[in-house]
Amino acid sequence: MRDLESALSFIFTREIVIKKILHKENLERFVGLLVQCFPARPAVNRFLKILHKWLQGIVKDKDRPLRPSALRLFYNMHKADNTSLPENVEWRTCQGSRPQYRGYPCSLWILFHTLTVNCATRGITSLTGADVLARIRGYVKSFFSCLECSKHFYNMSKNVEKEVHTHNEAILWLWRAHNKVNKRLSKEPSTDPHFPKIAYPPKDLCIECSDDRKGHNNTWNDSPSTWRDNVVLNYLKVHYSVHNIRLSESEETPEPDRVRYISGNEFVRVIGFGMTYFDTSLCVIVYGTGVVILVMLYIYILRRRRRGVKHFSHMA
């Protein structure tokens, strides 16, 4: 959750506010998407709802521009209510080997994937898969500070209304787009040498996601030629699900990358030592059964001894 909330904090306090005039319609639609599909903590969810309602009022007033100063003022007003996002941007999953690597762009991709997956798993009917991607496209076009990146993403997504309909299709479209971007940037100097951009998901995370599952190592010269979309879809739904998100600092940090292919299109989370929740439950059952058997055996031995003592005393 820290990377996701840091992404939102960066959006509202650093990226959007550098514009002179904000595209209020695209911002309102994007925040509306966050309200419906972002797996927020209750405090953050309240803030997003208040922000969305405020933006809706500004959009209705067609002659009223939205300036960064107004957004800053609104954001600062709600800090005292403990409903705002964390002030300190901190990367965990997206921490690069140096400050100039990964960080916000990485967290933005995680945010977008999380939105597509949670719109699907929540069964959102007010938005289609194309609507979700169009709102993401609107944000990238209007606010993303990397103009070249924004242009590339817009060109990729300009026909999503024709290409995508369902939420599942939106999940897969964004996954393919992300792999295309990673391939294009794989040899750029902006790529972290300690975190090379590879075809995702790699075989060590999902060996069944590709028909070439026995050979590829996911470098772009040896990436899988055929993906199994249905398996990839289920992998992504596990990886970016709300169950893989640490909602508070007191919760144990989950390992969202670690999921195991079972059969068909099913995955389960791996919680440690290569074990799933099912494995752990089975171990508890076996352990409990073993304890019961040992106790019963101990009682049986005690009774046998007592009978032996009584028999010996009668003979004496």
What does this structure look like?
The chain has a domain at 1-86: QSOX sulfhydryl oxidase domain (Four Helix Bundle (Hemerythrin (Met), subunit A), Up-down Bundle). It is 55% helix and 3% strand. It contains 11 helices and 3 strands; from the N terminus they run ααααααααααβββα. The protein has helices spanning 2-15, 24-37, 42-60, 68-77, 104-121, 129-143, 147-157, 160-163, 167-185, 229-239, 277-315; strands at residues 259-261, 267-272, 275-276. The chain has a 3-stranded antiparallel beta sheet with strand order 1-2-3. Helix 2 (24-37) packs across helix 6 (129-143). The longest helix is centred in the last third of the chain and has 39 residues, at 277-315. Residues 250-258, 260-265 and 271-275 have low confidence and may be disordered. One of its GO terms (cellular component) is extracellular space. It catalyses: 2 R'C(R)SH + O2 = R'C(R)S-S(R)CR' + H2O2.
